[in-house]
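Repro case for the chain-ordering regression, as requested:
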Amino acid sequence: MTALDCESPLLTDLYEFTMLQAYFDSGMNDIASFEFFVRKLPPGRNFLLAAGLEQVLAYLERLRFSANDVDQLASTGHFSPAFLQSLMHFRFSGDVQAMPEGTVFFPDEPILRITASIQQAQLVESRIMNLLHYETIVASKAARVVLAGAGRMLVDFGLRRAHGAEAGLLSARASYLAGFTGTATLLAGVRFSIPSYGTMAHSYVQAHLDEARAFASFARSQPDNATLLIDTYDTEAAAHKVAALAATLRASGVAVKAVRIDSGDLGEHARRVRAIFDGAGLQSIGIFASGNLDEYRVRDLVAAGAPIDGFGVGTRMNTSADAPYLDCAYKLTEYAGLPRRKRSEGKATWPGRKQSYRRYGADGTMLGDTLTIEGDTCDGLPLMRPCMTRGRRVAPEVPLLTSRAYAAQQLAALPAALRALEQSAPYPVTVSTALQDLARAADALTVQASPTAAPR
Amino acid sequence: MTALDCESPLLTDLYEFTMLQAYFDSGMNDIASFEFFVRKLPPGRNFLLAAGLEQVLAYLERLRFSANDVDQLASTGHFSPAFLQSLMHFRFSGDVQAMPEGTVFFPDEPILRITASIQQAQLVESRIMNLLHYETIVASKAARVVLAGAGRMLVDFGLRRAHGAEAGLLSARASYLAGFTGTATLLAGVRFSIPSYGTMAHSYVQAHLDEARAFASFARSQPDNATLLIDTYDTEAAAHKVAALAATLRASGVAVKAVRIDSGDLGEHARRVRAIFDGAGLQSIGIFASGNLDEYRVRDLVAAGAPIDGFGVGTRMNTSADAPYLDCAYKLTEYAGLPRRKRSEGKATWPGRKQSYRRYGADGTMLGDTLTIEGDTCDGLPLMRPCMTRGRRVAPEVPLLTSRAYAAQQLAALPAALRALEQSAPYPVTVSTALQDLARAADALTVQASPTAAPR
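-- result from build under test --
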């Protein structure tokens, strides 16, 4: 396998191309709208945080087929030469409406709409879902950690158990968007301008046999940036070594920035280590904790008053371990000017091009949303905004820091019950009369041929 | 963000580089062994299936730094010019021992060992874990689906909710290794020579308004490959439309290959649809089912005798939804000829270079493993084999089909209780006396300075 090309137009489901071939054969290519939305919240969650839009827009801007891509597609034997040839000229030239990254949203509310010729809008389904689903689930999980962290430093530690390379990079991005302080993943730091943080591993201590020598050697190498890992053998014994070492190091201009505790009862160890440092006049050394953390453990440590200055949160956040997927869909809602929806059992969807309006109270708290059809006017502020027109962005890329600030505003506007980690009563999302009428109209449009009728 | 470069040497944790800088400063670069292993099985699991080795070997072979990589590293401000310069010559020149892909393994048994200078062996930690962890957890989950499927066709459907692009590709590979029939992810099919499968989406039916017309149009476009999705509105009504259509299509040389059912009670719908087709003399049309499937649902449908010929299994397999991560580690076990281990609370590890021996009964069933130190001789067959010496592969890349056949053998050799989906008594893995002795020796080597002793 050569370098993974995430931008390959073949990074999609085969069925997108078999459908395209069929549309091509029958000359069907009217304008379609598809919307991405979540059917229901994962258990225990009160809201979701939209993320991944910038990656989707970059994908749409750059999507094209090389001769090699077309050759590979030809080799499957499913496609006609004329269709394959047409792909050489493929460009996405449609419109995109979306909620800005960092928007809080709820079931049935679309966070992205593609309006384009059906061949274009269909082809991009798989990768759009792949991007929006993952960044959204991580941002939504990370937002819970941020709420639980009550302002403590939070660093993404999850590359090693993230599901592959792109998950490692995008989870660093999504967690930073949601309010994390930074990431341990160097490439994510470089690519997305996210502050990066690094400490040391147990192996570094083990390689030295003498723990104190390991600490001294590392601190001298990172004279203003050393975080020493103190739980390889005995946490409190190691804290005493750090305390003894600190004076010597200070004399040579080296300051120990912090220690990290990665195992055992993190709160209890932190208290004892804090006392050891404070007793030695080392109030300046911070305590950083890691190891199987999630929003619940962070909340409990904060509530117990553990003297922990920052948390490394990895695996459970990057995999959204308690809810590793969303019940989400990218569905055709309009074709050739007519509303469409599916009515599959348990999976019926709302037709048409939709908009959400959000009402806020005088103190800025979210009061409720209305889901309606585009063009309908409702109280509140519309959440879907134009992002791309005829294949071009309507505005430059939104800086990640801007989206991060917007996410913080959105989280601050959540009703108190929704900010809790426990499941609350659902946030009110009302479906407008206009949208309900459209659903009935869409159903009436579908030819209800009797079961034994021959096709026309 | 430009194309994701999974092969960037910066796709790692920052701490790998801060440790390397410290080793560089102190001139520490003796030979180290690190081993990757899983501490314990996820809840409900009886075994794991090793996967990801080929990607690790390819990564090690190609790992190097461009001038741009070094510039980006320099921009963090943590590294000395001499150290940065040294990275321009970095090549992995160590040895790799590993269990072949498709090997069944158990907690504490290493599936990969890197033996190299400590700077090399440390640097590769994060990406090695990222690759082995993900492919192993997917192969292990997919193996359960394969055991439940009892020979039915199984197709990976999971790209859209896999965690990013690489997860989509590697889960197609890992599930095929474990025994899946193929994948819907086109690029994975092309890259890994995996059979690819595609059907149609609900949007295709919705765009046509007339369901029967959608079926006819699609079948004519894929005259020997059409699988028609029949649950957009009413599954049995759609089956009648397909039956009525089949004769017309057959006259024009078009055969409907199968139908797909994606919602509702899959077993009950399949029975009714089978009856409709059989009643029309259409025994040749297969029934394919998808929608929230995992090993339990597949097993129940098979056990109930549902006339389903194949299953599309996606999200829950690609995210290993019930166990989205493994408690795994990449730990220093030897440095400068001496065994090492950490003793952190709840995370103590076995030191030294290890080997697993597996004993088989006369009928080929696995009887038990012995975990011991390399060079010790035990009953059974050794599982760790040399893969790379001084940075070069000892043999050409193992074809995926070869590993797939080996995985099938391994699954066939599992004791019956371990093949069940329910948790069984643990498979016996004995720790040899030699390894236990080595652990005591490793502990004695660590300098046990008193808590207040000054560093040497």
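Ordering looks correct now. Residues 360 and 367 of chain B are 5 Å apart (CA to CA).
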